[in-house]
Amino acid sequence: MLARAARGTGALLLKGLNILIPVLDRIRYVQSLKEIVINVPEQSAVTLDNVTLQIDGVLYLRIMDPYKASYGVEDPEYAVTQLAQTTMRSELGKLSLDKVFRERESLNASIVDAINQAADCWGIRCLRYEIKDIHVPPRVKESMQMQVEAERRKRATVLESEGTRESAINVAEGKKQAQILASEAEKAEQINQAAGEASAVLAKAKAKAEAIRILAAALTQHNGDAAASLTVAEQYVSAFSKLAKDSNTILLPSNPGDVTSMVAQAMGVYGALTKAPIPEAQDSVSSRSSRDVRSTDASLDEELDRVKLS
């Protein structure tokens, strides 16, 4: 703490031992070099959008030059307080209501810069300024609350619509995947069915070819013609017995009760088939049989190729 003594011209009393002459010397000013906290009274301010606010704050300052603080201004604290109030009103008039709440830090910094520029000649330095309370008129507060509620409803509506959209997208994607999987399953089923049919046709063709080869081999053996004739006779009798079952037209022999005549007729067919052909006929039959076998093999190969291609 420094004291200012008045003796004709003022003398600064420094720290340590100072001698004062009674009556002639007396302490005029006492200045503290500590940081000083000053409450800025509440005041009215009008924003850029013509909204009246009640605002107060706290000012932190320090005396940097006791001589200027003592002789540069009559009451330093009062002068700084008035300067802070006028500067705050001026800065608030440059901002809208929404920016006042969003830019409090920049507003405090602007007030500090303005105070330091004006209080430099007073030997005082403003360290910081903080806005304590901002009071809004009741109607403005109600409109702000309505605006906040409308903004919340808007966000809720947007979120709900986004959820509906995502749900619709997910449903559509699920249907798409289901259709793709169903088509793939149907395709696999058709492929398996075609493969099964192809395998069945191939097995039947192989069995038929093998039967033809066995039959051709059996015909070339001894008494092969007789066995074939007997088989034809049996098939003739079996077909004759089914005539009345497969058609509305019934063919009956002249003596249907004579089974011997029917057997004799079948044996007659058998005897006609067992007549020995001439050698040239046998050769032609043998060559025709071999050609039939080869043609059967060729047709079988073509059928197998067609099955593979399908």
Automatic annotation (TrEMBL):
Domain Band, residue spans: 1-148
Similarity annotation: Belongs to the band 7/mec-2 family.
The protein's name: Stomatin-like protein 2, mitochondrial
Gene3D superfamilies: Band 7 domain
Role of this protein: Mitochondrial protein that probably regulates the biogenesis and the activity of mitochondria. Stimulates cardiolipin biosynthesis, binds cardiolipin-enriched membranes where it recruits and stabilizes some proteins including prohibitin and may therefore act in the organization of functional microdomains in mitochondrial membranes. Through regulation of the mitochondrial function may play a role into several biological processes including cell migration, cell proliferation, T-cell activation, calcium homeostasis and cellular response to stress.
SMART domains: PHB (SM00244)
InterPro entries in the record: Band7/mec-2_domain, Band_7, Band_7/SPFH_dom_sf, STML2-like_C, Stomatin_HflK_fam
Gene that encodes the chain: STOML2
Entry membrane topology: Lipid-anchor
GO biological process: mitochondrion organization
This protein's UniProt keywords: Mitochondrion
Pfam families: Band_7, Band_7_C
Localization terms from the record: Mitochondrion inner membrane
Keyword Membrane: no
Region ranges (Disordered): 280-310
One Gene Ontology CC term in the entry: mitochondrial inner membrane
Superkingdom of the source species: Eukaryota
